[in-house]
Specification:
Elements lengths: L1 H7 L14 H14 L7 H14 L2 H20 L7
Helix pairs in contact: 2-3
C-alpha cells in the first residue's frame, strides 16, 4: 500500500491525518466488524478468532476496490482543503 501511495503523492502533497484517507477506517474495519460480529461473542478469544477468520476470508476484489478508490479520495481531500468530505 505504501508503494502505491508514494507513486501518486509527493511529500508536499501528503495529506494531513484523515480517516477519510485511511482504507482501514473508511472500509476495512466496518467490513471486519460486520462479519466478526454477526453473532455475539462470550469471550475475547472468540471475538479474536472471528476477526482473524473474517480477515482471511475478505475478498481480494473488495481490497482492490478500496485501493483503487484511494486516489479519488485524495483528490476530494485536496479539493476540500484537507477538510471533511463525503
Amino acid at each position: 500500500m505504501i508503494n502505491f501511495i508514494i507513486k501518486f503523492t509527493t511529500t508536499k502533497q501528503w495529506p494531513p491525518y484523515s480517516p477519510d484517507l485511511n482504507p482501514l477506517d473508511y472500509s476495512i474495519w466496518g467490513y471486519l466488524e460486520s462479519k466478526a460480529c454477526e453473532k455475539p461473542h462470550k469471550t475475547i478469544k472468540s471475538l479474536k478468532r472471528a476477526i482473524k477468520k473474517a480477515w482471511k476470508e475478505m475478498p481480494d476484489e473488495m481490497v482492490e476496490r478500496v485501493v483503487d478508490s484511494w486516489p479519488g479520495r485524495l483528490q476530494a481531500c485536496i479539493d476540500a482543503n484537507g477538510g471533511h468530505f463525503e
